[in-house]
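Batch manifest, entry 17 of 40.
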Amino acid sequence: MYKKILTAINEHLNSEVTARYAMRLAKTIGAKFYTCFIAEKGMSTMSIGRAEEAMKRIFIDAEKMEIESESITETGDPARKIHEIVNHEGIDVVFASTRKEDVERRFYAGTTARRLSINLPCSVALVRVVHGGRIHPKDILVPLKARITNVEERAYFTAKIAHAFESNVLLFHAPEPISRFFHGEIHLTPLEWEKKLPKDISSFMEHLQRYRVIHTGKSVPGKIGKTIAIEAFSKRHDLIIMGASERSLFSRFLRGNPVEEVLRDTPCDLIILRPRHSNNSNKL
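Output type: structure tokens
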């Protein structure tokens, strides 16, 4: 599904860590790996130097891993330039690190991360780095809603990240507390999930099984964002992979945004995937 992966590098360590997630994914699926650095107007010489050094380190490591790679350096507005690169190179997915303002601002208002997630024609993986020195997730938490868009791509992304790091996967569902089926914490085997949980979750599991990904299921009713963060903290998960919120702005004001809640409270690294590939668009 992904033949070309682009990661955005800047002067911050988070972007280099993000690039290493993208690089390992590229190695696993045999994709071409692109790095780009966009120097913004007014950027200090020191910041430019840090970003360029990060680009060099990533490029050298990609060569050592025998990954086909290419580095691109431009000047201008990062979101606009990355959009141009995506169109020109035919990029399938862009990895970008979140910054401090992405965590602090509601709805990512005005941030580069928000602009990339909304405007790019390809899939976008936004990465919140919590543990900069640990990029080997052994236990991945995957929150799932009853209705999942782009099931195939989300399962593909999860499976390939799991393969890249030889990780175990826990599928986590936080239904509304008023649900008649869920009463307290419930642990389910893959077979039980297929029989009792919503169709989209069962479909997600079927795809993981095709990729031979070790996974289990768990359901805990409660407030979604808080419940996910507590689960990640209490069970010491290394990485969370979840989909970008599709709630309307009005709904966000009324009910909150679980993705933003997890973005603020996550105790481990977090990847927020906004998929753009339609189901059945490729044979996985």
